[in-house]
Design goal:
Number of domains: 2
Oligomer: single chain
Shape: globular
Order of helices and strands: HHHHHHHHHHHEEHEEHHHHH
Radius of gyration: 30 Å
Number of helices: 17
Largest sheet: 2 strands, antiparallel
Distance between the termini: 44 Å
Structural class: mainly alpha
Helix content: over 70%
Strand content: under 5%
Length: 576
C-alpha cells in the first residue's frame, strides 16, 4: 500500500510540475509584452499611444476580476474545498498595510477621474475607463487577499495556477506603469534643479505628456495634477505588496503542509520604549529634512548645495546608528545557541530573496556615486559627503539583511528544559517531602495552596517565596543542606532567565528602532528627495541620459527595499 501510494504521489506531481512551468512562462510572456508596450509609449514609438497601453492593462485587470469572482463564488459554494492554510502567509499586519495603501490608491483613482473630466475634450476615453476599472480591481483584490491569502489550493490546481500567476504579473505591470509615470514627473523637475547648481552644459529634451487642451476648471486641474504625483508612491507600494502576496499563494498551490500549532505573535509596545523613542526622533527629523530639502532645492545654487549637505549629514548620522544597532544584534545572536528553522516556507524564502534582490538597486547607485567621486575632475564641496553616505548605504544594508534573514529563520524561543522539569520541593509541617505541580501549572498560577508555597513569575523567571510560619529548630537544621541546594539551583535558573530576558529586550528595541528608521529612509526617495538626481556629479561622469536610466531602473527597488525591510522588522519584533 505504501509503495502504491508513493508511486501515485510521484506520478501525480509530474503534471503539476508541468503546470507550474507552463503558468510561469505564461506570466513572464504576459509581463514582457506589457513591458515592451510601456517602453514603446515612453519613447514615443510610432503607432503606439497611451491608449494602447491602458487598453492592455484594462484587459488584464478585467480578466483578473473574472477569475477572482469565480474563485470567490466557488469558495462560498464549497466551503470545505480548501482546508489547509499557510499560517506564515498573509499576516494580519501585512493585510492592514496593503489596505492602507489601497485606500490611498482609491484616492489616486478618484483624482485621475477628476483629471479626466477636466481634460475630457482632448483625452482618450481609456484614460477615464482605466481609473474606474482600477478602483474596482483594487477593492476586489484587497477583499480577496484578506480572505484567501493563506489558502493552500488543492483542487483545480492547473487552472488556479494560471489565474494566480496572471494576477501576479498584472500587478507587476501596474507597478511598472506607476513607476514610469512617477519617474517621468521627477525627470521633468530634475533638469531645473541641475541648472541652479551650475550644470548648464547638461541638455536634454524634457518629456511631457500633458494634454494639448485647456482645463475647464484651472484650480481643480492644478490640485488633481499635483496631488496625483504625491499619491503615486503609495500606489507603487500597494501593487508590489499585492504581487508578493499573490506569488506566495501561487507557490502554495498543491503544497503539503505539516499540521502543527502555530503560535500567534502579536505586536506589543511593552519593553520597546527606548527603541521607539529613538526611532520616532529619527522619523520626525527625517520628515523635517525632507520638507526643507524640497523647499530649498532648485531655488538657488547656495540653497541647493545647503539642502544636499543637510541631507547627506543627516543620512550619514542615521546610517551609522543603524549599522551600530545591527552589529549589536548580530553579536547577541552569536552569543546565543539556537538552531535555525530550515523547514519549507515559501513566504519566508520570498522575504529573504526580496531583501537581497532589491538591495542590489541601491548598491548599484552607491557604487555609481563612489566611482563618480573617484573619477570626477572637479569636486564641489557638497559632493564629498556623498562618499561616506554611499559607503554606509552598502554596509548598512549588508548588516541589516544578515540580521533580518537570521531573525526570520531562527526557531522561536522555547522554555529551557531545566525550567520545564523544575519542581518546587516544599516541606509541610509534620509531613514528608511533596512535589508541587509542574512548571506549566506554576506559570499559569494554578498552584496548590496545600503545598504551602506561593510561586511567582517575575520577568519570565520562576522564583519561590519563602514560606512564612514557624518551624522547629531541629527541622530547620535537618533541612538546611537541602534548602541550600534548592536555593542555589533556583538562583542559577533565575539568573539565566534574566540574562535571556535582557537579550530579548535589547533585540526587540533594536528591531523597533530599525523598523522606524527604514520607514524614515523610505520617505525621502518616495516623495522626491533624491540626491542621486540632484547631485549632478554622476551625470557629468556617466552622461546625463545613461545615469538617469540607471537611477530610474534602480530607484524603485531601493524604495521597495525600505518598505519591505520595515515589514520584515515588524515581524521580527513580534517574533522575538
Amino acid at each position: 500500500m505504501d509503495k502504491a501510494g508513493g508511486s501515485l504521489s510521484a506520478g501525480g506531481s509530474y503534471p503539476q510540475k508541468n503546470a507550474e512551468i507552463l503558468s510561469s512562462q505564461y506570466g513572464i510572456n504576459l509581463f514582457l509584452a506589457g513591458l515592451l508596450l510601456t517602453f514603446a509609449w515612453a519613447v514615443h514609438a510610432v503607432g503606439i499611444s497611451k491608449s494602447h497601453l491602458l487598453s492592455y492593462l484594462i484587459t488584464l485587470m478585467l480578466v483578473q476580476l473574472l477569475w477572482m469572482l469565480w474563485y470567490l463564488f466557488r469558495s462560498c459554494t464549497q466551503r470545505r474545498l480548501i482546508q489547509d492554510k499557510d499560517t506564515h502567509a498573509g499576516a494580519r499586519w501585512l493585510k492592514c498595510g496593503i489596505t492602507l495603501f489601497a485606500v490611498i490608491t482609491l484616492i489616486l483613482d478618484s483624482f485621475k477621474i477628476g483629471y479626466y473630466i477636466d481634460f475630457s475634450n482632448c483625452l482618450s476615453p481609456t484614460e477615464g475607463i482605466f481609473p474606474v476599472t482600477h478602483a474596482a480591481h483594487t477593492i476586489l483584490q484587497v477583499y480577496f487577499l484578506w480572505c484567501h491569502a493563506k489558502d493552500i489550493i488543492q483542487s483545480f490546481k492547473t487552472l488556479e495556477r494560471f489565474g494566480v500567476i496572471h494576477s501576479v504579473f498584472t500587478n507587476l505591470l501596474l507597478w511598472t506603469n506607476g513607476v514610469l509615470t512617477e519617474s517621468k514627473h521627477q525627470l521633468n523637475e530634475h533638469k531645473e534643479r541641475l541648472i541652479t547648481l551650475g550644470f548648464g552644459n547638461i541638455t536634454i529634451v524634457l518629456d511631457d505628456h500633458a494634454p494639448q487642451c485647456n482645463c475647464t476648471t484651472t484650480t481643480l486641474c492644478s490640485i488633481f495634477s499635483q496631488g496625483i504625483y504625491y499619491l503615486y508612491p503609495f500606489n507603487i507600494e500597494y501593487h508590489i505588496l499585492a504581487s508578493t502576496m499573490l506569488y506566495v499563494l501561487w507557490k502554495n498551490i498543491g503544497r503539503k503542509v505539516e499540521h502543527h500549532q502555530q503560535h500567534k505573535t502579536p505586536f506589543k509596545f511593552h519593553g520597546i520604549t527606548v527603541g521607539m523613542i529613538f526611532g520616532l526622533i529619527v522619523l520626525t527629523s527625517t520628515i523635517a529634512i525632507v520638507v526643507v530639502y524640497l523647499i530649498q532645492i532648485g531655488r538657488s545654487k547656495i540653497k541647493s548645495e545647503l539642502a544636499l549637505t543637510m541631507f547627506y549629514l543627516h543620512a550619514i548620522f542615521v546610517l551609522v546608528l543603524m549599522c551600530t544597532a545591527g552589529v549589536i544584534a548580530l553579536l547577541i545572536y552569536r552569543l546565543e545557541d539556537r538552531s535555525l528553522d530550515n523547514s519549507k516556507n515559501p513566504a519566508r524564502k520570498l522575504d529573504a530573496e526580496l531583501l537581497v534582490g532589491t538591495a542590489a538597486g541601491s548598491w548599484l547607485l552607491s557604487w555609481g556615486s563612489i566611482l563618480a567621486i573617484i573619477c570626477a575632475q572637479a569636486h564641489p564641496k557638497y559632493t564629498w559627503y556623498n562618499l561616506p553616505y554611499s559607503i554606509l548605504v552598502i554596509i548598512e544594508k549588508y548588516i541589516q539583511n544578515l540580521f533580518i534573514i537570521e531573525s526570520i529563520h531562527r526557531e522561536q524561543e522555547k522554555v529551557n528544559d531545566d525550567v520545564k522539569t523544575l519542581r518546587i520541593v516544599t516541606v509541610s509541617r509534620g509531613s514528608t517531602l511533596t512535589l508541587t505541580p509542574s512548571y506549566k501549572e506554576i506559570y499559569n498560577g494554578h498552584t496548590s495552596r496545600d503545598a504551602g508555597e506561593l510561586p511567582c513569575l517575575f520577568r519570565g523567571s520562576i522564583c519561590t517565596r519563602e514560606r512564612d510560619g514557624s518551624s522547629g529548630d531541629s527541622e530547620g537544621k535537618s533541612q538546611g543542606d537541602g534548602s541550600g541546594m534548592h536555593s542555589a539551583s533556583e538562583f542559577s535558573l533565575c539568573s539565566r532567565s534574566s540574562v535571556a530576558d535582557n537579550k530579548r529586550r535589547i533585540l526587540k528595541n533594536i528591531a523597533a528602532f530599525l523598523f522606524l528608521c527604514n520607514l524614515s529612509l523610505w520617505i525621502p526617495p518616495a516623495f522626491g528627495c533624491r540626491p542621486e538626481y540632484d547631485n549632478g556629479l554622476e551625470e557629468i561622469v556617466f552622461g546625463f541620459e545613461p545615469w538617469i536610466i540607471v537611477v530610474n531602473l534602480a530607484m524603485p527597488f531601493s524604495i521597495f527595499y525600505r518598505m519591505h525591510s520595515a515589514a520584515s522588522l515588524f515581524e521580527v519584533n513580534c517574533k522575538t
